[in-house]
């Protein structure tokens, strides 16, 4: 009898692939009852599964890959045209995806006779990486997944909802945020953005199916609601349902929301741009000019001034891309950018951010079989790629992570590396090119998953990161928040001044620029102090309630003072750097002035010589004036 839990969803690879193949009836006894699973699938799905199984177990198939009827169906293949280049791990992943797309509930249908041997094999492994230890701990009868319950219950923690962001007491620690209202369906690869103190969630993927609903979380009341949005039919006043999509980008522009790119059931050769108007609750397809990019998903789209900068992604055949396109939002005109320098390897599911309204930063992402941890910078004025030298920790490779910028700080959350979820939350200080770890989560949390979203909001002068969704073996619809101790009130170097020159030096020098060797030590001390605070705050309550409250308040004040001190120290360092640059500029100008003065000395001597010559000539001309008068007198006398 098939168990009702989704234990197979918690398996790592290759065990998850083995469970999927056994359930489908591929590679097992033909008389096995589980062969009925593949018999129920469409012909094209059966062919794909057999092809991928052979690719994963034995290598390239002698026969060609199954043909697909529609271009959109090609998105199910990563490298079907070049099977010899598909790795076994990638074939396993695609096998599970194809099965999930055609039988979304297969996790719940796997017989115990298949689960038990795989579970025993996992438990009996003698050498288990520490990173995998939480996987075995999590392989237990899970609670009923919220998405399977058609009548989702509102949270019972009314006090936590009423307290809202005030309930988050500790800096730099992820906390589950209690919300009310009907939660969205779990998902990943969705879009998220903030507009007027509300977080909008659109689209995404759940159990191999694209979603089309638009959900809103009011960040003041922490209440979920769903918008019955429609799309204006082209050339008609009527509206039609919104096409499901995933892998798109959601951007706030003015009082509206833009959705760019992504894969959809409504196939298009080029990237589509849709606009949502909260006033009318309607989507409209935006007509663009110029040369639009080819259709893709997993791209990054960054708002810089009045333009959107798109980089990378993967096309409908899942071929990674590394091209750059700019959409002018005022004229809605696309322009492809020809860059110089060495561009990043083609990739998708990376993150991007803008610095100084001039530099586009690209971090991480993945190709068909590789995850990256490199940082590339594109100077949008010179259109040149570079890799600046960085300090601090070295980020681990990841794809499917999320990023958001707060002032000079770029936060990177989650992602995966083809084996496990990435557990640490990173912060990249753009002004100093320094990496640091903000916090680390334990176990298979949504924050260590792929396809999650991250935005930031401000509450009572504090900045909060807000995450939603993700996939780490299970789909998530939880909301997590982190109160950032990194302050964003330091003026970013975007003016035509000294700090702007510093940023120019950092990104355009061959090896970057390390502004201060103390930065890494300060960040390490901050991490140690934060960790110490967390340990102290997690000590069980062994004193009176009143004492605990006083101690907690004092520690909160201390944390606030530490943050303020750290901000002042960083601002002081920036001012010192600016002052040093000013001194160097003055020294250079003084040297130039000296050269000019030295060059004027010969000219001054020559001027004196010319003045003497003029005076001498004037003296010689005086007798000539008397002679000229005498001649004139004689002429007049002769004429008379």
TrEMBL record:
InterPro entries assigned: ACBP4-6_C (IPR056819), Acyl-CoA-binding_sf (IPR035984), FERM/acyl-CoA-bd_prot_sf (IPR014352), Kelch-typ_b-propeller (IPR015915)
Positions of transmembrane segments: none
Keywords recorded for this protein, A-Z: Kelch repeat, Lipid-binding, Repeat
An annotated Gene Ontology molecular function: fatty-acyl-CoA binding
Keyword field contains Chloroplast: no
Kinase found in the keyword field: no
Domain Acyl-CoA-binding: 551-640
GO biological process: lipid transport
Gene Ontology CC terms, in alphabetical order: cytosol
Highest taxon of the lineage: Eukaryota
Region (Disordered) residue spans: 62-82
Protein name (Swiss-Prot/TrEMBL): Acyl-CoA-binding domain-containing protein
Originating species: Ananas comosus var. bracteatus (red pineapple)
């Amino acid at each position: 009898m098939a168990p009702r839990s989704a234990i197979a969803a918690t398996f790592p690879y290759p065990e998850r692939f083995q469970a999927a193949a056994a359930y489908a009836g591929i590679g097992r006894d033909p008389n096995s009852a589980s062969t009925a699973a593949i018999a129920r699938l469409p012909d094209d799905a059966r062919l794909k599964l057999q092809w991928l199984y052979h690719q994963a177990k034995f290598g390239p198939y002698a026969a060609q890959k199954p043909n697909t009827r529609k271009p959109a169906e090609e998105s199910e293949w990563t490298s079907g045209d070049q099977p010899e280049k598909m790795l076994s791990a990638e074939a396993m992943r695609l096998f599970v995806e194809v099965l999930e797309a055609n039988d979304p509930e297969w996790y719940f249908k796997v017989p115990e006779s298949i689960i038990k041997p795989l579970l025993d094999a996992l438990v009996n492994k003698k050498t288990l990486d520490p990173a995998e230890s939480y996987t075995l701990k999590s392989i237990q009868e899970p609670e009923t997944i919220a998405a399977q319950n058609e009548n989702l219950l509102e949270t019972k923690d009314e006090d936590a909802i009423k307290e809202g962001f005030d309930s988050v007491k500790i800096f730099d620690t992820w906390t589950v945020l209690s919300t009310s209202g009907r939660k969205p369906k779990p998902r990943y690869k969705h879009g998220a953005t903030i507009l007027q103190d509300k977080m909008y969630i659109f689209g995404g993927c759940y159990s191999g199916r694209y979603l089309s609903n638009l959900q809103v979380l009011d960040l003041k009341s922490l209440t979920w609601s769903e918008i019955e949005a429609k799309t204006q039919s082209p050339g008609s006043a009527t509206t039609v349902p919104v096409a499901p999509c995933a892998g798109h980008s959601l951007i706030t522009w003015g009082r509206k929301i833009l959705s760019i790119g992504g894969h959809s059931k409504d196939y298009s050769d080029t990237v589509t741009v849709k606009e949502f108007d909260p006033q009318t609750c309607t989507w409209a397809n935006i007509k663009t000019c110029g040369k639009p990019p080819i259709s893709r998903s997993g791209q990054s789209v960054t708002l810089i001034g009045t333009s959107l900068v798109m980089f990378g992604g993967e096309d409908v055949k899942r071929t990674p891309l590394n091209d750059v396109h700019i959409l002018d939002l005022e004229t809605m005109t696309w322009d492809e950018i020809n860059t110089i320098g060495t561009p990043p390897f083609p990739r998708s599911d990376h993150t991007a951010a803008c610095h100084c309204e001039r530099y586009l930063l690209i971090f991480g992402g993945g190709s068909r079989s590789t995850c990256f941890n490199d940082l590339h910078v594109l100077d949008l004025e010179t259109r040149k790629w570079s890799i600046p030298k960085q300090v601090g920790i070295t980020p681990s490779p990841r794809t499917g992570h999320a990023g958001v910028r707060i002032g000079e700080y770029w936060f990177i959350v989650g992602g995966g590396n083809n084996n496990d979820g990435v557990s640490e939350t990173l912060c990249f200080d753009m002004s100093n090119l320094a990496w640091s770890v903000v916090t680390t989560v334990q176990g298979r949390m949504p924050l260590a998953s792929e396809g999650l979203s991250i935005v930031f909001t401000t509450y009572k002068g504090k900045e909060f990161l807000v995450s939603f969704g993700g996939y780490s073996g299970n789909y998530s619809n939880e909301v997590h928040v982190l109160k950032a101790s990194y302050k964003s009130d330091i003026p970013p170097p975007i003016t035509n001044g000294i700090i702007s020159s510093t940023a120019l030096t950092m990104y355009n020098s061959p090896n970057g620029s390390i502004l201060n060797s103390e930065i890494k030590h300060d960040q390490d001390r901050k991490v140690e102090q934060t960790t110490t605070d967390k340990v102290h705050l997690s000590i069980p309550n062994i004193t009176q309630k009143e004492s605990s409250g006083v101690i907690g308040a004092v520690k909160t004040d201390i944390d606030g003072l530490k943050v303020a001190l750290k901000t002042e120290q960083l601002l002081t360092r920036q001012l010192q750097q600016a002052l040093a640059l000013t001194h160097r500029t003055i020294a250079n100008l003084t040297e130039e002035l000296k050269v000019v003065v030295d060059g004027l000395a010969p000219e001054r001597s020559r001027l004196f010589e010319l003045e003497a010559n003029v005076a001498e000539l004037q003296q010689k001309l005086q007798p000539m004036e008397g002679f000229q008068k005498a001649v004139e007198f004689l002429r007049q006398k002769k004429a008379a």
